[in-house]
Amino acid sequence: MSTDTPKTPKNEEARERLIDLAAEFYDQFAQGEVPAMRIPTRTKSNIEYDEEQGVWVYGDRHSTRSANSVGGAQKLLKAVYVIDFLSNQLQEGRSSTLRELYYLSESWDFDAAQFSDQDESNQLVEDLEIVSDVTREDFNMRPEESGATLMGPLFLREQTRRGEREIHCQEDVGEGGYQIPNNPDTIEFLDHDADFVLCVETGGMRDRLVENGFDTDYNVIIVHLKGQPARATRRITKRLRDELDLPVVVFTDGDPWSYRIYGSVAYGSIKSAHLSERLATPEAQFVGIQPSDIVRYELPTDPLSDSDVNALQSELEDPRFQSEYWTEQIELQLDIGKKAEQQALASRGLDFVTDTYLPERLSEMDVV
């Protein structure tokens, strides 16, 4: 484990809620009841698309983790051990990774409390998020992978373990940009000259845009998604939209898996449905690569695989893609049987994406 940011009011609240949860188990014992923990059923069949909010949410079905069986008792035992660990971590102002939690369980004094694999420990942390209504970021839990960045005319203040620092995300950073912290809620936006936010799937395209000065020429904050975006990336994107009132557009490859990357930014993901209100940005628009771009610009392509076709057909039934635009684009892609990467635009020159493609598309969308 390593020292993280100083303790915050949210950390204190997180610790109190964890202790309250443990106290509930104790009270159940004291009243002669079988200890239990009730959580939403975390299956695809219990995920609903909230039309009003435009995000994925859990439905009404719940399951109960009860000590009335050996398996249920073991799950509650593990929950108590994790609550104890997280409570101490927050008290000490420390942080740890999800991977470290899994390995730390091997040192716990009761074998039945140890995790069989990391998926089990990850799921338990998510369960605690749901029942406590506190995010793992406020538990000071970090994913193993990080490093998503943003670049653009944004001035901010961040809290670090060394104190506060103020950063301009163009003038005070290198070509790699500003690295988004695990918990973006430790950031305070001070000022900006941005007109919109552009979320970019691939590192190669992000580097092309920065090298060509697109962030400067169009006053845009470029957020590198790094493929399927991490929670921190989605959280800061939502904050930029909600707090600074900036339009958000998403620029990905032209394949069904990349459309789902857009979907996770705009509508949330099934895995994090309990956090959709914090992570999803329903106002986000898709800028490309569109199947119609493949035809219009005669881009270099790869053929659709069987799994690509199945994914596209599934998206035709997906509530996130139930619009005339998406139906037209997906049916066109199935018809031409091709997919293309963002970098395929380079076939028309290294400046084509910044001089022609994005300006034209963004103008059509009334973003610029």
Helix segment count?
A: 13
- What structural class do you assign from the helix and strand content? alpha/beta
Based on DSSP secondary structure assignment, what is the total number of beta strands?
A: 18
Overall body shape: globular
Poorly predicted runs of 5 or more residues? 1-5
User: Can you list the strand order of the major beta sheet?
Assistant: 11-8-14-13-15-16
* CATH class assignment of the largest domain: Alpha Beta
Describe this structure in words.
Residues 196-362 form the Topoisomerase 6 subunit A/Spo11 TOPRIM domain. Mg(2+) binds at residues 201, 253. Residues 144-193 form the Type II DNA topoisomerase VI subunit A all-beta domain. With 368 residues, the chain is of the alpha/beta class. It has 2 domains: 2-142, Orthogonal Bundle (Arc Repressor Mutant, subunit A), CATH 1.10.10; 149-364, Dna Topoisomerase Vi A Subunit, Chain: A, domain 2, CATH 3.40.1360. It has 13 helices and 18 strands. It has a 6-stranded mixed β-sheet with strand order 11-8-14-13-15-16, sandwiched between helices. A 3-stranded mixed β-sheet has the order 1-6-7. A 3-stranded antiparallel β-sheet has the order 10-9-12, with no helix packed on it. A hairpin with a 4-residue loop joins strand 3 and strand 4.
